[in-house]
Amino acid sequence: MEVVKHFQQVPNEKTWMTSEVKALIRKRNTPFKSGDLYSSARADLRRDERAYTGLQGDRRGNDPQPIYINGDPVERVHSFKNLGILISDDLTWTANTNANIKKATQRLHFLRILRKNSLNSVFTAPVKGVYFFTFTTYSWVAEADIGVKLMKNNEEVLLVWEWQDKGDNEDYASNSVLLELEVDDKVYMRLPKGYQVAASKNSNIHTFSGFLLYPFHNSEDQSREVAFTAALQPSSPDDSGFGRIGPFGTEITLEYGKVLTNVGRAYDSNIGVFTAPVKGVYFFTFTTYSWVREEVIGVKLMKNNEEVLLVWEWQDKGDNEDYASNSVLLELEVDDKVYMRLPKGYQVAASKNSNIHTFSGFLLYPFHDSEDQSREVAFTAALQPSSWDNGGFGRIGPFDIEITLVHGKALTNVGGAYDSNIGVFTAPVKGVYFFTFTTYSWVAEADIGVKLMKNNEEVLLVWEWQDKGDNEDYASNSVLLELEVGDRVYMRLPKGYQVAASIKSNIHTFSGFLLYSTPTSTPQ
C-alpha cells in the first residue's frame, strides 16, 4: 500500500517550517518570556514609562511634577531655538511659523515708519567743501540684526551693526564722520537687507544731521581748515573681518590707522595723535564698539597727558554688543595733543571691512587776539552726582517730578553763554547752533533717559527700559537748531527716570556751539 503525503503551502511560509522546527523555536524563546529576567525588564519599562509621563504631564494635559536640583526647581520650557529654528515640545512647526510671521510684521512696521518720517531722504552737497555728518539709531526688538549704514554716493562710509541679544531689548548707537564732498555728491542712510531699527511718532529719537564746515575756494587761504576722521582696525580679524583690541597689561594709545578725511594733515595715523596746528576751539567726537561678554570695555579721550572723557562699562552676560559715543569742545594751544587711550585691562572691537569704531575732530574757531571773538560760542559741561560710591559713580533720580539736569562741571565755555549753575544755554546771537549730548546709566530694570529742550518744547529724546541682562548703557544724540537771541536750550530728566554720572570722570556730557550767525533784520 502506497502512502502519499500532501503538503499545503501558504504564502511566505517555508517548506521546511515543520511542527518540529516550530517546537524548537518556542522552546528557545521560553527563557525570554518567563522568569526573573523577563519580569525585571517589564518592571524597568513600566518605571521608565511613568518617569517619562511625569516629565511630560499626564494624558489630560496637566502640568508635570517639578524636578528639583539642590532644592531649586528646574525651569521647564515649551520651546527653544537651535540653529535659527524654534523647536517646541509638541514637535510641530506652529511656534516657529508664528515667530517668523511676528518678525516679518515688525519689520514691515519699521519700514513704514522709516518711509513716513523720510529717514531715507538724501542730502546733496550744494558746494564743494568739508561736511560733518552724525546720526543716531535705535531699536527695541530682541534677537534680531539691527543697524544702519551712512553712504556717500554708492559707497558705504560708516556702519553701526549688532545682534540684539535676548537680554538686551533696547539699544542706541551713534557715529559721526567728516567728508570732503564735491558739488552734487549724495549722502544718505541705508537699512541693510534683513536689518531693522525703530523710531517714534511722538519723539525724535532716530536722527540724521549734517552741516557744511568749510567751503573750498581755490583763491582763499585754507590754512585754518583742519578736520579729520579715522577708523580703528583690528590687527587679527576673524573670517568676517571683526577683531578685538586688548586687553593689555599696560595702557596704550589707540592708533586709528584708516584715514577717511585729513584736511590740514594735523592727524598722524601712524601714532594715532592729533596735534593742534593753530590756537583755537576744537570739536572732537568718537564712537567705540565691543562684542565681548563679561569683560570691561571702554576708551578715554586725552588732551596731552590728561583724561578729558571716558566711556566705560562692564559688558554683561546678557548684552553681547554695545556702542558708546561722546563729544567735547576744547580750547587748544599750538602743538597740544589729543588722542584716544585704551586703559589697562580694557578691550574694544573693530572691523577690517567697515568703519564702526571712529575718531573725528575739527577746528571750529581759530583764536587771534586782534580779532573779534564776540560771535564765538562753544561749551561742554559734564554731569556730576551729588552722592557717589567708592568708584566715584552715583545715580541721579528717579524723582516724582521732571527736573532740569544741571551739568555743573564746565570743561569749555567760550562766550559764557552756558550757565553751569542752572544747566541752561542762552543764545547770545541769532544763528544756527549744533547741540549734542551723551547719557549713561548702570541701573537694571528701570526707565533711563533724558530730553533736550528748546525753551519749553521737547526737541530730542533718548529713552529705554534698562533690561535685567543689560546693566549699563550709553546713548547719544545731536541736533541743529535755528535760535533767536535769548532762546534757551537745556537737558531734562523726565519724571520717574534716572541716569548715572561720575565724580572722577566726564562720562555724561552736554555740548553746543554756534555754527553760523544769521543777520538780524532791521526795521525800514
Keywords:
single chain; 524 residues; mainly beta; Jelly Rolls; 2 domains; six-stranded antiparallel β-sheet; 3 helices; 37 strands; elongated
Kindly describe this structure.
It is built from three helices and 37 strands. The protein is mainly β and 524 residues long. The protein has two domains: 122-369, Jelly Rolls (Sandwich); 372-524, Jelly Rolls, CATH 2.60.120. The strands form ten sheets. Strands 14, 16, 17, 19, 20 and 22 form a six-stranded antiparallel β-sheet that branches. Strands 27, 29, 30, 32, 33 and 35 form a six-stranded antiparallel β-sheet that branches. Strands 15-12-24-18-21 form a five-stranded antiparallel β-sheet, with no helix packed on it.
Radius of gyration: 33 Å
Helix content: 10-25%
> At CATH's second level, what is the architecture of the largest domain?
Sandwich
Provide the β-strand percentage band: 35-45%
Indicate the structural class. mainly beta
Q: Strand count, sense and closure of the main sheet? A: 6 strands, antiparallel
Indicate the topology:
Elements: H1 19-33, H2 35-56, E1 68-69, E2 72-73, E3 79-82, E4 85-88, H3 94-116, E5 122-124, E6 129-139, E7 144-152, E8 155-164, E9 171-181, E10 186-190, E11 207-215, E12 227-231, E13 242-245, E14 252-253, E15 258-263, E16 267-268, E17 273-275, E18 280-290, E19 296-303, E20 306-314, E21 322-332, E22 337-342, E23 348-351, E24 358-366, E25 378-382, E26 393-396, E27 403-404, E28 409-414, E29 418-419, E30 424-426, E31 431-441, E32 446-454, E33 457-466, E34 473-483, E35 488-493, E36 499-502, E37 509-517
Antiparallel strand pairs: 1-2, 3-4, 5-10, 6-9, 6-11, 7-8, 7-10, 12-15, 12-24, 13-23, 14-22, 16-17, 17-22, 18-21, 18-24, 19-20, 19-22, 25-28, 25-37, 26-36, 27-35, 29-30, 30-35, 31-34, 31-37, 32-33, 32-35
